[in-house]
Amino acid sequence: MANSAEAIDATGTPDGADAAETNQPRDNRQRTSQLRRLAYLWRLVELVRPHRVRFAIATIALFIGSGLALVYPQAARYAVDRALAERSLAMLDQILVGLLIIIVVHASLVWVRHYLMSWLGERAVTDLRGMVFDRILSLSASWFHERRSGELVGRLASDVTIIEGVVGSELSIALRNTVQLIGGIVLLFVVNARLTLLMLLIVPPVTVGTVFFGRVIRRMSKAVQDRLAEASAQVQESISAIQTVQAFVREEREAASYRGGVEAAFTQALSLARWRSWFFSSVSAASYFSIAFILWLGGREVIEEHLTPGDLIAFLLYTFIIAGALANVTGLWSSLQRAVGATERLFGIIDTVPVIRDAEDPIELPGGRGAVHFDRVNFRYPSRPDQHVLQDIDLAIAAGEVVALVGPSGAGKTTLTALLLRFFDVESGVVKFEGMDVRRLRLAELRKAMAIVAQEPVLFSGTIRDNIAYARDDATEAEIVSAARDAHAHEFIEDFPDGYGTAIGERGVKLSGGQRQRLAIARAILANPRVLILDEATSNLDAESEALVQEALSRLMKHRTTLVIAHRLSTVRDADRIVVLDRGRIVEQGSHDELMALNGVYRRLVEHQVIVEN
Length: 614
Fold this sequence. Notes:
By secondary structure, this protein is of the alpha/beta class.
């Protein structure tokens, strides 16, 4: 039995066991969820720890600046009660000079706080982006089978942006408003405790109500945008398929459907307009009511000489500060909740332990020329645990041997090469490279010893030079050109105005299929692998392109162990040995003539043109 202690995290909950939480009482589940969220927030704070000096300076600037903002109402009180009451121009000038000094200091502190907090936010999310992408690149193929690429890109974009906003600005805004909220309330009690208590019965409920209805309006506004997005999506779909629409005479149907969509958006927009009208009128009335009521009460206090006129002005200014701070703090709570969710999702990726990783004590890759042995290998994909893909595979490939893997679709040909590259690990048995279990070798060394040329070669959106040199960072220009020559790519590259500096577009869209394939071969030549894997490398090419690619492949295959997955009979015939797979098992082995004489699976594949003549 596995050590259960290893599966328990710091909160006392099984690691990743969200399902297990459903068996706990509701209060316990909520408490566990809150603890986990606090743990993720603390980890977010840990990103700032290396820059704690900057954070400390920003925090000091924040507290001093927020405190100085509370001085302005006191300056107004002093000006009214002393300078105006005594009609002293000199005192009024002194107050102005003092205010100007405070304003300059305050503005400087705001700049320092804003710049440093923005720097910290940018630094934290930059580090976080790097951590997430580093982890994504280390994860096994089975992890990606369970997730959409758009989801991962979205996490790196939207989730990180949410965190950037919180760390870079919203956190400091929340701290500033908290200081001003607490400081303002304390100073209000100093001015007049009775009036402060009455104010607290009026202003906070109005402010919280305003924030609540603001959220409702935002949700309704999003609903309107969603309706419009649906209508826009239909427009895009109809226009992109305009010939099909017109061919089936469906113009009226598409137009009616679009009108229905925009009418639904119009109805939703009217509902939003009603809510917004009520919202603004209510907020306006409540705000002015609060001001009028406080002025009335404060005026009575002034008449009864419990307050001075300056105290009343200071009281009103502090009330405005408190109302604004309370609204901001309440509004920032939802931002904090979004940040918690984004942080949880991102650290969920960072905390993922790769299934395929180096052993705790990996060994160095032995010397050799590419000997491979599949020793009684059985395998099932994690996403399809009830279906055997490979069963009892025993296949030894000598160094320098060219072996063709053939069989019907789904027989397990590509899976064999994936196990050799260790994109997956076997369920049982052993995959050996140079006599060693691939699970004992360092992943980087194992994969550097191999190169693959696929049916649809993957190229990147850089230049031709970048794509060939992708195999080796230290490749010289001469080596890149030599590899291109060997791949019969140099001629067409030189025909481009920019030569090797030609940008090829996303996935090489500016090149033909044969040109893309030859660039992939040049990249493999530059890698100088011990083992070459050709996965349907010529199946989609025309005869002329295939001849050039085939000649380039022949050069690449010399003195290398080669695994060829092919449907072209010409490619299969040139192999030293043909291995026939069917339903995950090796059913036949031998040369072309030997297998044709057996009158078995291989002969049937040829006769049914599953393996076709060139």
